[in-house]
Amino acid sequence: MAMDSGVFTIAELVALGWPPTEIRRAQRAQRLISIGRGWVRTDAAHPDVVSAVMAGGALSCVGALSFHKQHRWPKIWIPSGYSDTHVRRSKHMKTTARPTGPFHWCQGYGRPLPVTAAVDSVAVAVGCAARCVTGEEWIAIVDSILNSTEITIPDLQADMGRVTQTVSRLFARCDARSQSGTESIARLRLISAGFSVEVQPSISRHEHADLAVGALLIECDGKLYHSDEASYRNDRRRDRMTLIDRWMTMRLTYDDVLYDWAGVLEDIRSVTRQDRHRIRRTDDPRRKHASPS
Ligand SMILES: [Zn+2]
Which InterPro entries match (predicted)? Predict the structure, then answer.
């Protein structure tokens, strides 16, 4: 139950141990405000959750995942570009107010699941998201859940509603070792481009890089632009260490992977091309600055 949303069914409050007389007293005192049959909210209720319930559903999909990210699991990855309030509509709930702001109705595969709480669980939200976000984004979301929460694929499959073949195939491409959305998407795109990709290759007894393609290590930064001083120094130490072992390192940002993939792929192809093998061509203008002429 998403306690922090501030929106509850009366049944949820009773299950939490609130005596019905206490609930009625709180309603009279306006500490709990009725927002439709069987639903109440507190003063501090999350506005997106209130609008979802008043529109006749639950906050779901990317909206519910963002909610869980904010309140419990900060490392769940949320793709950008989904700012609408994603609501999973209930057949049994009445609309008490028109949706405010940009809304998106979503529903998972199979028979609609009942709405019993104002915010969908991670599993139900993931089931809805399978029909809203791209396959690549969905895998990156699930990778982040597997990597940063105690939730497993069987947990998700048990509670998300119908698991279609398409969704099963997406699950098969997920990887719990992924450390960031950028890494997940880079991995999927490299595999699609025909590369054999090693995930979290060892670079020392206790350290791993994000990805490797042949002798090229690929390190993916998270969405946050700034890295702190310690990790800045650590990145450079790793680059020196791996260079000694004849690895090359390419560092990719979120924007590189999301918005300049063609350019990145071209660079990776140039580096990994079999016939390249460190032939230093002084006629290549990009190399001139590196040659001690
Ligand atoms: Zn959605």
Answer: Restrct_endonuc-II-like
CA–CA separation, 125 and 172 (whole Å): 19
Q: How far is the CA of 107 from the centre of ligand 1 (A)?
A: 7
Which tokens sit at 279? 């032939």
The pLDDT of residue 58 is: 96
- 13-22: which pairs have CB atoms within 8 A and are 24 or more residues apart? 13/40
Residue given tokens 């071209």 in the structure block: 266
Tell me, in angstroms, the distance from the centre of ligand 1 to residue 268's CA.
Answer: 34
Domains of the chain, start order: 1-176 (no CATH), 177-278 (3.40.960.10)
Contact 159, 128 (CB under 8 A): no
CA of 102 to the centre of ligand 1 (A): 12
Please tell me the distance between residue 84's alpha carbon and the centre of ligand 1 in angstroms.
9
Residue reference for tokens 């990597």: 147
- At 3-24, the pLDDT tens digits run 689 999 999 999 999 999 999 9
Strand pairing report for 198-199 and 103-106:
unpaired
Is residue 52 within 8 A of residue 87, CB to CB? The reply is: yes
Q: Please check whether residue 7 is in contact with residue 33, taking contact to mean a CB–CB distance below 8 angstroms.
A: no
Q: To the nearest 10°, the Cα dihedral for 131, 137, 141, 146?
A: 100
Tokens 């979120």, residue? 254
What is the rounded distance in angstroms from the CA atom of residue 173 to the CA atom of residue 235? Answer: 28
Task: Output the CA 94–ligand 1 centroid distance in Å.
Answer: 20
Whole-number Å distance, alpha carbon 256 to ligand 1 midpoint, is 26
Q: Note residues around ion ligand 1 (Cβ under 5 angstroms).
A: 61, 86, 106, 132
pLDDT for res 226 = 53
pLDDT digits 0-9 by tens, 155-167? 999 999 999 999 9
Partner residues linked to 88 by β-bridges: 58, 106
CA 105 / ligand 1 centre spacing (Å): 6
